[in-house]
């Protein structure tokens, strides 16, 4: 029951608390206008693929909730949103269903509502291979996200304190499950060193889950009714910087980068894709839209989001999502300094050309 009440509190505080205080870094990444795009509107193709799974659009409704009877209705609405828009969707951590079989229905409702959709399962890195297999089977998932949330856990009063052996556990899951494994951070970002390690154990995609969006450290402090200092509240790698780190680390491989963590606007999404993402993950924006204004309004907002995404693609001359990976991007400010210090020179992005 503790895990189930936690889910409800996460939803409550995710709606109350704002993003940050860390910035995503997207404002440091500037796309270069192409006045001769040589494209027609109907030429724009927003289809993509993540971990070998074809997606009709580069947007994933990322993990939000599950595990409590009171949130089954939210998952049903999210699944209906995904069904109506064609977006892929990930469920929240399914560990509650490992502890209490009755909780499984709050996840199964997603597949019942969206029978033909792309749905990702979700567990923490402490899970066993058999638990991962069960999570996939529970919802007929096409892939499984394994989430990393060390920052959140050490703030959570009842959270984990032992994070040893996570990489070997992930490798064991990769070797056991029948679907691709996507490793995802939950708001503190992934650096290139860890991206290299994850690539080495066979994961098929990495979701950077950077700082600047929904702040789970702040949420856990609010749940525990204590204050965190500003330095702890702002901990993490800004999303855009994490995207660059991971994309450059994975460039020699066929492993995909997914960018999440404060992707709030169509321009954020296109910047994230141009940095190197195969797709972006959004969660908080969708949840707030349909909880405040209803499902129909959320669908209209999303449709407008996709139209603007296509507009920005045309404005930089990108026919396909992969074409965004070769459009020039100017990096300024703190992000430029960070990436230069890490051996990723801004000129590498600024002088890219179509291949």
Any overview of this molecule?
This protein has one domain (2-350): Alpha-Beta Barrel (TIM Barrel), CATH 3.20.20. Helix content is 46%, strand content 13%. It has helices at 2-16, 72-85, 95-99, 105-113, 129-139, 150-155, 166-176, 192-200, 216-224, 230-233, 239-250, 266-275, 284-293, 295-315, 321-324, 333-341, 346-350, and strands spanning 29-31, 48-50, 53-55, 59-61, 88-90, 119-124, 143-148, 181-185, 205-207, 256-260, 279-282, 329-331. The strands form 3 sheets. It has an 8-stranded parallel barrel with strand order 4-5-6-7-8-9-10-11, surrounded by 7 helices. It has a two-stranded antiparallel ribbon with strand order 1-12. Helix 1 packs across helix 9, helix 12 crosses helix 14 (295-315) and helix 13 (284-293) packs across helix 14. It is globular, with a radius of gyration of 19 Å. The chain starts with a helix and ends in a 5-residue tail after the last helix. 48% of the residues are buried. The mean pLDDT is 92.
């Amino acid at each position: 029951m503790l895990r189930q009440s936690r889910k409800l509190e996460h939803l409550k505080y995710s709606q109350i608390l704002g993003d940050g205080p860390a910035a995503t870094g997207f404002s440091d990444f500037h796309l270069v206008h192409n006045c001769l795009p040589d494209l027609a509107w109907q030429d724009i193709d927003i289809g993509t693929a993540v971990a070998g799974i074809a997606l009709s659009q580069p947007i994933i409704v990322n993990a939000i909730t599950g595990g409590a009877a009171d949130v089954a209705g939210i998952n049903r609405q999210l699944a209906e949103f995904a069904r109506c828009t064609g977006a892929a969707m990930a469920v929240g951590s399914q560990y509650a269903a490992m502890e209490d079989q009755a909780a499984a229905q709050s996840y199964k409702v997603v597949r019942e509502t969206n029978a033909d959709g792309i749905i990702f399962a979700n567990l923490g890195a402490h899970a066993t291979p058999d638990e991962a297999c069960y999570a996939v089977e529970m919802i007929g998932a096409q892939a499984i996200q394994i989430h990393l949330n060390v920052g959140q856990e050490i703030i959570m009063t009842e959270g984990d304190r032992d994070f040893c052996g996570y990489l070997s556990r992930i490798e064991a899951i990769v070797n056991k499950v029948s679907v691709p494994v996507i490793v995802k951070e939950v708001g503190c970002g992934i650096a290139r060193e860890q991206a290299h390690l994850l690539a080495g154990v066979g994961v098929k995609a990495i979701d950077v889950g950077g700082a600047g969006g929904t702040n789970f450290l702040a949420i856990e402090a609010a749940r525990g009714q204590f204050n965190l200092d500003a330095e702890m509240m702002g901990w993490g790698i800004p999303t855009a910087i994490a995207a660059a780190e991971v994309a450059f680390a994975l460039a020699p491989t066929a492993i995909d980068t997914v960018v999440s963590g404060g992707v709030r606007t169509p321009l954020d999404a296109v910047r994230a894709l141009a940095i190197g993402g195969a797709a972006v993950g959004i969660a908080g924006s969708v949840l707030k839209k349909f909880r405040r204004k209803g499902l129909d309004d959320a669908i209209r907002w999303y449709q407008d989001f996709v139209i603007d995404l296509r507009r920005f693609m045309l404005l930089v001359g990108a026919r396909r999502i992969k074409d965004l990976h070769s459009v020039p991007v100017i990096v300024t400010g703190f992000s430029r300094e960070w990436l230069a210090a890490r051996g990723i020179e801004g000129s590498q992005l600024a002088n890219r050309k179509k291949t």
